[in-house]
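Pinned message: reference record for Ig-like domain-containing protein
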Amino acid sequence: TKLQVSKSKRTLTLVENRPIQLNCSVKSQTSQNSHFAVLWYVHKPSDADGKLILKTTHSSAFEYGTYAEEEGLRGRLQFERHASGGLFSLTVQRAEVSDSGSYYCHVEEWLLSPNYAWYKLAEEVSGRTEVTVKQPDSRLKLSQAQGNLSILETRQIQLECVVLNRTSVTSQLMVEWFVWKPNHPERETVAHLSRDATFHYGEQAAKNNLKGRLHLESPSSGVYRLFIQNVAVQDSGTYSCRVEEWLPSPSDAALQVDTVVPNATVSEKAAFQLDCSILSRSSQDSRFAVAWYSLRTKGAGKRGSLGVEEQEEEEEVSEGEDSEDPTERMVLLSVGPDAVFGPEGSPWEGRLRFQRLSPLLYRLTVLEANPHDTGNYSCHVEEWLPSPQKEWYRLTEEESAPIGIRVLDTSSTLQSLICSNDALFYFVFFYPFPIFGILIITILLVRFKSRNSSKNSEGKNGVPLLWIKEPHLNYSPTCLEPPVLSIHPGAID
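Predicted structure (tokens):
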């Protein structure tokens, strides 16, 4: 065996909700006809051995491991075999802190025996990728403006809490107001606004009869104003606000796009469909922007000349840096949240048909498929919601798993079928020649014999003989001697 798998080690640090991209490189193989089975494992500090995530057999069949089943990874896994043949990728979408661990691949090399049975020739384990998933650094920032107010009784005071920045537009905020009373060391809650925008009174509101005098409004995103009406002397104190920011868990993402991979094989000039199914959404008021992409390996020809080690160096990701996406994306068609169509991609122009079958199901049909359409496709969905000011903003986005489409070339289908099967190849291109030669020789021999026979059965000038010469008899009159019969050759055999 000449099987060699890359042993280089990597360290990958990323924040939650980002994809974990893992690569497995076969540096050398025994035969160009080798097939590979790839098994992906993760090792946690608390485990003695690695746990199986995913297995792809030498025949490209998928099998989920126990770890994927237990941790609910099935909907977040994406496997890809690159065009080079020796590079395999596994992507864990929407990473969580619990996904941290040491990842590696186990490669098995399979060959086809002379009796057309597959057997495992060798196996080898790759180097490990240490993955650390952390929560994002908080970018929450509040206005620190301070001031002293002197208000006459029965007037109204305004307490403003302004959020200048937040970590994510999808985060939820909990706002709470406190007051420190003179000669009272502990703060007391006046009111708070929960993450689901529910207003609650605090213990101070019950003491000073504030329930009927509090009023809350939010004129814009991140601006919260608390009004105390008909103020009294006992309302004096030092007021402040506190804000908590809550991010959605990657596993609890509201927007989910169907990740089933319905690979399809179609004939040339036929049509194939690319469905985009939205499984769940954040709100009934959501609108969606949908785009379909063709996924191609970026710089496939150029990258093919690089060594495996150089490719791995390019794919190294350090802390705080984003990995470069090796996939080139070409847009087929995009539809905005306002139902405005974008331009069609030039290779597919005039061959696309869009359908909205339901509020959560979109379909793109590609007509008159040609072999150049073979590849992977995906749909990208953006969820848009209206703000309190009736302005639409993008809440989140999600992309489906790749859909593999293969378009058969009718002109080369028979040739590829014959060449892909050794028995059929010999039957078509080897065995007919000796059989045909033997048949020709047999026909010539039969014709030659029949020709000689016809010549012998003909007389002078080709006239058939009707009479046969009698043989000559020599008789001796002597009785003592027996008669002698002498037969002379006649005209025919």
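Pinned by admin. Summary line: The helical segments are 66-71, 203-207, 300-303, 308-314, 413-419, 422-429, 432-456.
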